[in-house]
Specification:
- By secondary structure, the protein is α/β, with parallel strands linked by helices.
- The chain has 4 domains: 94 residues, Beta-grasp domain (Ubiquitin-like (UB roll), Roll), CATH 3.10.20.30; 113 residues, Orthogonal Bundle (Fumarate Reductase Iron-sulfur Protein, Chain B, domain 2); 120 residues, Glutathione S-transferase Yfyf (Class Pi), Chain A, domain 2; 105 residues, 3-Layer(aba) Sandwich (Rossmann fold).
- The protein is 41% helix and 14% strand.
- The strands form 4 sheets. A 5-stranded mixed β-sheet has the order 2-1-5-3-4.
- The model has no long low-confidence stretch (mean pLDDT 96).
Length: 489
């Protein structure tokens, strides 16, 4: 037996008292799960309330947060010091949340339809959606649910499932549109939280949006973006001199060549924030990396995929693949572009890496430290879309003091900023509050959409990781130039 202490949230809404964490020291067998520890705590205190049923990860009853993350208590190993809290949903008592209003919004099959069985291809698509155990984890982390009347990820998953089934007589596309289909920011928090690893954004929501588009249900602003891509090959209108008009096709490093990347610039860093892209190029050249910019490259297609407008996608893919085919390593600085190339383009004749991965692989010259405290915003399409988290933090810590904040969607993704600006602003305000709570002097991120959107919701400077590194290098150069051992020029 092993003795350990867990802290469990205790809360009774009727009492009017705030939630509090209560410690329980319990004895459990080796390999015990969180649910076993709760059973042991319940033996000490029978008033502790929590749900469980099957104990084998199939019913979803015991979903709760452990150390801030949604899990199934019956499947999660317990550790000394674990903090156990309810999901971020209305609390009935202690660890029990009210799922009824959400479960009532999950549609049931309406018998009728064509009355035929699904074919083999449809069955394969249905299988991707059928493992849901309705635990509520995805709903609890959904940013859209927090600020809008969105039915939630699993309700959308069910609508896609029913839309595929020829035995269902419901109009599931129209229903999805009524249930705020375009509120999803495609942040992938639902997939990250799902104990069954159902890819709801890609397997359900984006497919529903594509069918909604075919029916003429797209948001007008989304259609305008698609028209811009069709006519200019860019999803962002020209507001400044684009990066492509400011740089050469090949830029050599400032010292010996240690590597080479072909730079997939993306629409935002070319058309809206080119100075940040120039900073990234400087950091790469400083660290011995040759930067090649194929001028034929076009929009990656991410804004079209996320909003279900797929008519131009094949052309964009072909143009980009042909443009980058000669280069073994393609680098992105936009989280959305990187995720799209890695996950939506299929098999590629080149390797795709985010700039944080590139700099980690090649290694960087140490920059000077700045007397600065910063916080880092995780871009959803970098953190969850590409699994990149520690790399940018490692670079930030070389330059400044880093204060963490919760990784939450800023509201700029999935077409929400253009199509649902009120929702985007509401999520931006939640980011503002989280940033203010850190006491940081600057916000650092690694995605142009996040940087641009968050800047509209904070008075602090919002900068890219590469820009922070470049400032560290410039300080280092200034210190070297002013050193008694190094005469200044």
């Amino acid at each position: 037996m092993t003795e350990l202490t867990i802290r469990v949230s205790r809360f009774d809404p009727v009492s009017g008292e705030p939630a509090r964490l209560v410690p329980y020291t319990v004895e459990v067998h080796e390999g015990a799960r969180v649910l076993n520890a709760l059973h042991a705590a319940h033996e000490q205190d029978p008033t502790l309330a929590y749900r469980y049923c099957c104990g084998s990860g199939q019913c979803g009853s015991c979903a709760m947060k452990v150390n801030g993350k949604p899990v199934l208590a019956c499947m999660t190993p317990v550790a000394d010091g674990d903090v156990i809290e309810p999901l971020d949903l209305p609390v009935v008592r202690d660890l029990v949340v009210d799922l009824v209003p959400r479960l009532q919004r999950i549609a049931a099959l309406v018998p009728g339809g064509e009355g035929t069985l699904p074919d083999a291809e449809t069955v394969d698509r249905l299988k991707e959606l059928c493992d849901c155990i309705e635990c509520g984890s995805c709903i609890s982390v959904c940013p859209a649910v927090a600020v809008t009347d969105f039915s939630g990820p699993t309700a959308m998953r069910q609508l896609e499932r029913l839309s595929l089934d020829p035995r269902d007589a419901g109009d599931r596309i129209a229903e999805a549109d009524r249930e705020n289909l375009f509120a999803c920011t495609v942040c992938h928090a639902c997939y990250e939280a799902c104990p069954k690893e159902i890819r709801i954004p890609g397997k359900a929501i984006e497919r529903l949006r594509a069918e909604a588009h075919r029916r003429g249900l797209s948001i007008p602003r989304h259609v305008e973006v698609a028209d811009l891509v069709r006519t200019t090959d860019r999803s962002v209108a020209r507001t400044v001199t684009p990066l492509f008009e400011r740089v050469d096709a090949v830029m050599e490093p400032y010292g010996p060549v240690r590597g080479e990347v072909a730079f997939f610039v993306g629409c935002m860093y070319s058309m809206r924030l080119p100075e940040t892209a120039l900073d990234a190029i400087e950091v790469l050249r400083r660290n011995g990396i040759r930067v090649i910019i194929p001028m034929e490259q076009v929009c990656c297609g991410s804004p079209l995929i996320r909003t279900g407008q797929l008519e131009e996608l094949a052309r964009l893919k072909k143009t980009n693949i042909d443009a980058f085919r000669p280069y073994p390593l393609v680098m992105t600085t936009c989280a959305g572009c990187g995720m799209t190339l890695k996950t939506n383009y299929g098999e590629l004749p080149f390797r795709v890496m985010d700039i944080n991965e590139v700099l980690t692989e090649f290694g960087i010259e140490p920059p000077a430290r700045l007397p600065l405290t910063v916080t880092y915003h995780d871009p959803c399409h970098l953190l969850r879309g590409q699994g990149i988290s520690e790399e940018p933090r490692a670079f930030i810590r070389q330059v400044a003091d880093l204060v963490e904040m919760p990784a939450r969607c800023c509201g700029s993704g999935g077409g929400v900023k253009s199509g649902k600006p009120e929702e985007a602003d509401a999520l931006g305000e939640l980011r503002r509050e989280a940033i203010a709570a850190t006491g940081a002097e600057q916000v650092i991120s690694s995605c142009p959409f996040c940087e641009f959107h968050i800047q509209g919701h904070t008075d602090l400077p919002v900068r890219n990781v590469a820009s922070l590194l470049l400032e560290g290098y410039r300080k280092k150069d200034a210190e070297t130039a002013g050193s008694p051992d190094q005469p200044s020029s």
